[in-house]
């Protein structure tokens, strides 16, 4: 993959201005992978809804396991090493950025949990029907999340093409399970499957908007890219450890655990293979 975009050169690594042709080519790949990250994850989730119920009941753990491997691999094997290599004299500042990012995501998640508890009314949080306003809130939150994902993809591509590919793939890996959850919430909120698909596709386009805006903004502020890479790594690690791993711990059988470990390993191996290439 890296060979297909060898024309990608980042200003952080060169004191000379980039030719317009290279800048255009680089932006093209940012748009391609942002489009894949947004639309592909929604379509994959929508296709998943068409599968037999027996498969839909068993496969989420497999998707989550692979997503954990992709997120941890992207965070620890690519994003953090690249950020540290780029800003060697600011290691303490980068680690502080990671700490602040984790706390930010913790507070945001607390707010989402509180909102969910508030809507359902105490111990009735396990009820099957989710009130309509929750569907609207999910769409708003998903739009912001997708916008941020676009920013992260652009920041990674601005630093290095292969790092951008890894980041985009990690985004796609964790977006598919998330979109499945969003579909479930919207359908329980009263949306038809067709309407849920249309609204999810619309919110997914925020990723492209975020990528384009970040591409032009960060191109003038390259000194912030290592910190944004660190923020991205922290977000990936937090999602994997705080949200996805606890979901897998609900199944404690030996066979299930082995399958989960294998799929996590597949996600990690995928990252290593891309890095080696």
Provide structural commentary.
It is built from 10 helices and no strands. The chain is mainly α and 277 residues long. The chain has one domain. Helix 5 packs parallel to helix 7. 39% of the residues are buried. The N terminus is likely disordered.
Name the descriptors.
79% helix; 277 residues; mainly alpha
Strand content: under 5%
Number of helices: 10
Largest sheet: none
Rg value? 19 Å
Termini, distance in Å? Answer: 8 Å
Question: Could you say how many structural domains there are in total?
Answer: 1
- The counted number of beta strands is 0
> Mean of the pLDDT scores?
75
By helix and strand content, what is the structural category?
Answer: mainly alpha
Helix/strand order: HHHHHHHHHH
> How much helix, percentage-wise, in residues?
over 70%
Structure in a nutshell:
Helix content is 79%, strand content 0%. With 277 residues, it is mainly α.
Helices and strands, with pairings:
Layout: H1 20-48, H2 53-58, H3 60-86, H4 91-120, H5 132-159, H6 161-188, H7 193-204, H8 206-218, H9 225-248, H10 254-276
């Amino acid at each position: 993959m890296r060979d297909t975009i060898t024309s990608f050169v980042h200003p952080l690594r060169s004191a000379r201005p980039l030719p317009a042709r290279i800048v255009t080519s680089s932006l093209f790949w940012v748009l391609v992978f942002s489009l894949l990250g947004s639309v592909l994850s929604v379509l994959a989730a929508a296709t998943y809804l068409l599968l037999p119920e027996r498969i839909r009941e068993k496969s989420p753990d497999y998707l989550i396991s692979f997503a954990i491997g992709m997120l941890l691999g992207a965070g620890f094997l690519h994003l953090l090493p690249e950020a540290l290599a780029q800003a060697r004299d600011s290691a303490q500042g980068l680690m502080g950025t990671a700490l602040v990012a984790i706390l930010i995501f913790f507070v945001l998640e607390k707010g989402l949990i509180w909102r969910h508890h508030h809507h359902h009314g105490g111990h009735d949080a396990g009820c099957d029907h989710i009130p309509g306003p929750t569907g609207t809130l999910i769409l708003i939150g998903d739009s912001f999340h997708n916008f941020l994902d676009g920013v992260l993809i652009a920041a990674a591509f601005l630093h290095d093409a292969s790092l951008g590919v890894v980041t985009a793939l990690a985004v796609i890996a964790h977006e598919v399970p998330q979109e499945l959850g969003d579909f479930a919430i919207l359908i329980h909120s009263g949306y038809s499957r067709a309407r849920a698909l249309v609204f999810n596709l619309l919110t997914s386009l925020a990723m492209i908007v975020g990528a384009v805006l970040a591409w032009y903004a960060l191109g003038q502020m390259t000194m912030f890219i290592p910190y944004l890479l660190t923020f991205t790594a922290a977000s990936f690690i937090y999602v994997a450890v705080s949200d996805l791993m606890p979901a897998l711990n609900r199944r404690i059988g030996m066979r299930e655990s082995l399958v989960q470990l294998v799929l996590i390993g597949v996600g990690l191996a995928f990252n290593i293979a891309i890095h080696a290439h």
